[in-house]
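Notes for week 9. Today we move from apo structures to complexes. The key idea is that a small molecule is not decoration. When we ask for a structure prediction with H2B present, the ligand SMILES becomes part of the input, just like the chain. The input block below holds both the sequence and the ligand string. Read it once before you look at the output, and try to guess where the molecule might sit.
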Amino acid sequence: MSQLSELQCEACRVDAPTVTDDEIAEYRQQVPEWQIVERDGIMQLERTFTFKDFVQALDFTIRVGEIAERADHHPAILTEYGKVTVTWWSHKIKGLHRNDFILAARTDEVAK
Ligand SMILES: C[C@H](O)[C@H](O)[C@H]1CNC2=NC(N)=NC(=O)C2=N1
């Protein structure tokens, strides 16, 4: 399978299908540190990154915001002293789309 982070995001459409269990199993191989959580019936992809202090956490937050804007696909981000929790899901389909796994992989890249 090609590198998730290099795939193109599709424009978010209300009729887009959520990922299948098989797709989740396939994609998770490339983003193994991410948890799948369900909130208000919505499946989400979540990971907490740790940092030395708040400045590093904020710098990472900005980098995540930049990749989100470039893709026009946006996460929920909780920025705290020394840690940032990033949560991806597709609002329009109230669930997980391949876009979320692509952006999770890109998030891992900007965390390095
Ligand atoms: C108009 C704009 O393109 C859409 O609202 C985009 C913006 N960013 C988005 N981000 C996420 N995570 N899900 C969406 O459905 C979504 N839709």
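Residues 12, 72-74, 90-92 surround H2B (CB under 6 Å).
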